[in-house]
Amino acid sequence: MRMKAYELGVVTSYSRPRVSNDNPFAESLFKTCKYRPNWPTEGFSSLDSARQWVLRFTHWYNMEHKHSQLRFVTPNKRHMGEDKVILAKRKQTIDSAKALNPARWGGREVRVCTPVPPTTLNPVKEPKSIDKMRVA
């Protein structure tokens, strides 16, 4: 099976068999797909209709959908570095509203407006050096 995938130019995954949550990013994306109002519950009528649906979904997901884990900024805006400006403006708006009516907020932080740092699925761990081990 792996050889056929290799012949077709498909990179095989090292996911564990029968482990559905091996890639949380993919699992989250699948759920987002299935919960879209235009998800075809009866399936796709053709390969072309499936491709067209995925293209529309991908555009919506990257260009329009504001992700909660990205502080309600679209992935495209984050990728382009525009999230910093958007979040700074949002912070100013929140601070202004809080200054006008401080009792409404009760002294608590309203929303975090700092950009989200990059995320990786399997980050490369820094090798432990002897010097670091001596400090501990």
TrEMBL record:
**Any one GO molecular function term:** nucleic acid binding
Q: Which GO terms describe its biological process?
A: DNA integration
Q: Which InterPro entries does the annotation name?
A: Integrase_cat-core, RNaseH-like_sf, RNaseH_sf
Q: Which domain of life is it from?
A: Bacteria
What is the source species?
A: Psychrobacter pasteurii
Report the residue ranges that make up the Integrase catalytic domain in this protein.
9-75
The protein depicted here goes by the name Integrase catalytic domain-containing protein
